[in-house]
Amino acid sequence: EERTRELREANQKLMELDEMKTAFVSQASHDLRTPLAAIKGSLDNLVLGVAGDLSDKQRRILDRASRSVDRLTDLINDILDLSRIETGRTKLEKCKIAVNTIAESVVQENKPAAEWKRITIRYQNPTEPLYVYADAGKMQRVFGELVNNAIKYTREEGTIDLLLDEAEGMIRFSVKDTGIGMNAEECKRIWERFYRTVDSQFLAKGSGLGLSIAKELVEMHDGKIRVESEKGKGSCFRVLLPKMEIKARAEKEKEVVS
Ligand code: ADP
C-alpha cells in the first residue's frame, strides 16, 4: 500500500511537471513571436532601402538574416500548434468538403517551388468529387505538408505523383516521389517530434515537426497516415480519411440513439 501511494504521488508530480513544461513552452513561444516580428519588419525596411541604398553584399546578408527569421517564426508556430493540439485546444471546424479542391489548391500552391527544382508534379483530378467531413484548413495543411516534403526531399528533375482515390472504404490521398527515400527504421521514427533523417539534413532545412502535426490532425479526423519508402528510390505517403456517407450515417445513428 505504501509503495502504491508513493507511486501515485510520483505519477501525480510527473503529470504536474509535464503540464508546467507544456505551459512554459507555449508561453515562451508566444512571447518570442513579438520581437521576431519586429526584427523581420526592420530587416524588410532595410531591404526596401528605407535607410539608404544597399550594396549587393549588404542585400545578400540581409536576405540571409530574413530567411533565418522566417525559419525561426515557422518553428515557433509549429511548436505552438503542437502544444495547442496536445492540450486539446485545437478545435476542428468540420463541414462537407470535396477533397479534390484541396488537392488542386495544394498543387497550385506548390508549383513554383517544384518548378524552381525542375520537378514535375503530376495530378489527375478524379472525374467525380470525393467528399469528406473535415476541417478544410487543417486538411489543406496536411496535404500541403506532404507535397512540400516531397519537393524538399527530391532532387532536381524528379517526379511527384499525386493520386486521389478510394481504398479500404476510405478516401485516400497519395503523394509518391522519386526522392532520397528512407530505410525501415527511419520510416518508423519520422512521426516523432524533431526527428529528421541524416540524409535529409544535407538536402533541406526543417524542424522535424511537420509530420508530427500532420499525424495528430489526421487522427483527430479518425483517419490514418502512412509511409512506404525505399532508400535512394523514393517515398509514398498516404492519408486515409473516412468517407462522407459513413460519417453522415454515424451522425444520424447518434441522433437516433440520443
Ligand atoms: P521537416 O521536413 O521540417 O524536417 P517533417 O516532420 O515534415 O519535418 O519530416 C520529418 C523528417 O521525415 C524529415 O526531416 C525527413 O528526414 C523525413 N521525410 C519527410 N518526408 C520525406 C520524403 N518525402 N522523403 C524522404 N524523407 C522525408
What does this structure look like?
There is one protein chain. Strand 4 (159-167) and strand 5 form a beta hairpin. The protein has 258 residues and is of the alpha+beta class. It has helices spanning 2-47, 56-86, 99-116, 136-152, 184-189, 198-203, 210-220, 244-257, and strands at 95-98, 120-123, 131-134, 159-167, 170-177, 224-230, 234-242. It is globular and about 75 Å long. It contains eight helices and seven strands. Helix 2 (56-86) packs parallel to helix 7 and helix 4 packs antiparallel against helix 7 (210-220). The mean pLDDT is 93. It starts with a helix and ends with a helix. The strands form two sheets. It has a five-stranded mixed sheet. The chain has a two-stranded antiparallel ribbon with strand order 1-3. Bound molecules: adenosine-5'-diphosphate (ADP). The site of adenosine-5'-diphosphate has 21 residues, from helix 4 and helix 7. Residues 145, 149-150, 153, 177, 179-182, 190, 196-197, 200, 206-212, 235 line the site of adenosine-5'-diphosphate.
Q: How much is the radius of gyration in Å? A: 22 Å
Q: Which strand order does the major sheet show?
A: 2-4-5-7-6
Distance between the terminal alpha carbons, to the nearest Å? 42 Å
Binned strand content: 15-25%
Secondary structure: number of strands: 7
Give the helix tally: 8
* Overall shape: globular
Query: In which range does the helix fraction lie?
Result: 55-70%
- Which segments are poorly predicted (pLDDT under 50) over 5 or more consecutive residues? none
Largest beta-sheet details: 5 strands, mixed
